[in-house]
């Protein structure tokens, strides 16, 4: 029990220090800030969600005592809560099939387990990315004019700090950046949460503490109703006020979810290629360098959700049934 509490406190302290490093203003602190959920996720996956909850509560209280209540709340919502819940989902399982009791002289038979699907975990990550982005925007104001005005002034200060000769000619560029800022922030939150969860699972798997088998990422798919939710969010994007901003954030998160499933589809459809590594590497390189080709992955993920490309491809690769006498 003492070791359990020590691990929880160490994970919470590491996560709190990484989160608070943003105060220094150093460039490396930005990387540490985005990796702040990682220690708590390792604790949640390797030692159970209770370990992450104890560490997260201790870290939030410590940050609140040192920096004030806002830091405590932000840490709890953006770091501790996602780490605890996603770690819980990774370990969530249920027995499938009939459980046959073993004989008295035999060891007990372990039932076959069905683990929480990767696609549903991805949907939860999209939900947390939406929640944290909306919460961050609400700290800037409670109406669209205040939020956009604060974002615009912040971007102008940033541009003037990098180039003191900045003139009013960049106002159109700043206005465009303000319009895409909520969606861009959501994409960053979605990517960093996914990266943290993947790294946390890899670390625990390497240390031998991962209690579930490593999932087949190529089978990841979002629930069917996600596409309906995306269509509704896109429709509300054409309204006004905070509702439109919230819809843009939700749509950006769900589209990134389909981008991840699009990469899973790409990995599946290239199984028959001899130069598969080259084509996959090229696809990742193009997306990383240019960014906008990720739209193709979004379209591929959505098309697979409608037409079932992976299922058809895998069915076509199965051997024909043996002839019956």
UniProtKB/TrEMBL annotation:
Give the superkingdom in one word.
Bacteria
Keywords (A to Z) from UniProt: Membrane, Transmembrane, Transmembrane helix
> Is Glycoprotein among the key words of this record?
no
The keyword Membrane is assigned to this record? yes
**Stretch forming the signal peptide:** none
Q: Where are the transmembrane segments?
A: 26-47, 59-85, 121-142, 184-205, 225-245, 252-273, 279-307
| Protein's recorded name | DUF2232 domain-containing protein
Native organism is Bradyrhizobium betae
Question: What lineage, starting at the top, does this entry show?
Answer: Bacteria, Pseudomonadati, Pseudomonadota, Alphaproteobacteria, Hyphomicrobiales
């Amino acid at each position: 029990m003492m070791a359990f509490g020590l691990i929880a406190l160490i994970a919470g302290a590491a996560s709190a220090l990484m989160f608070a490093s943003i105060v220094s203003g150093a460039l490396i602190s930005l990387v540490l800030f985005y990796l702040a959920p990682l220690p708590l996720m390792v604790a949640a996956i390797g030692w159970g969600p209770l370990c992450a909850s104890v560490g997260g509560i201790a870290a939030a209280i410590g940050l609140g005592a040192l920096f004030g209540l806002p830091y405590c709340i932000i840490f709890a919502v953006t770091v501790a809560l996602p780490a605890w819940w996603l770690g819980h989902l990774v370990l969530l399982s249920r027995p499938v099939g009939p459980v046959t009791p073993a004989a008295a002289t035999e060891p007990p038979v372990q039932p076959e387990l069905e683990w929480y699907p990767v696609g549903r975990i991805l949907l939860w990550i999209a939900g947390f990315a939406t929640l944290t982005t909306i919460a961050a925007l609400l700290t800037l104001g409670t109406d669209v004019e205040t939020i956009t005005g604060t974002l615009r002034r912040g971007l102008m200060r940033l541009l003037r700090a990098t180039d003191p000769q900045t003139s009013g000619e960049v106002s159109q560029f700043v206005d465009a950046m303000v319009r895409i800022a909520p969606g861009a922030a959501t994409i960053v939150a979605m990517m960093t949460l996914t990266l943290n969860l993947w790294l946390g699972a890899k670390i625990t798997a390497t240390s031998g503490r991962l209690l579930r088998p490593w999932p087949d990422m190529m089978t990841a798919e979002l629930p069917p109703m996600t596409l309906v939710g995306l269509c509704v969010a896109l429709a509300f994007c054409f309204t006004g006020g905070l509702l439109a901003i919230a819809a843009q954030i939700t749509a950006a998160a769900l589209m990134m979810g389909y981008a991840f499933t699009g990469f899973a589809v790409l990995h599946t459809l290239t199984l028959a290629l001899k130069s598969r590594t080259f084509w996959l590497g090229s696809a990742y390189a193009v997306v990383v360098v240019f960014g906008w080709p990720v739209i193709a992955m979004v379209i591929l993920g959505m098309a697979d959700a409608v037409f079932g490309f992976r299922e058809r491809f895998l069915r076509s690769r199965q051997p024909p049934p043996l002839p019956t006498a």
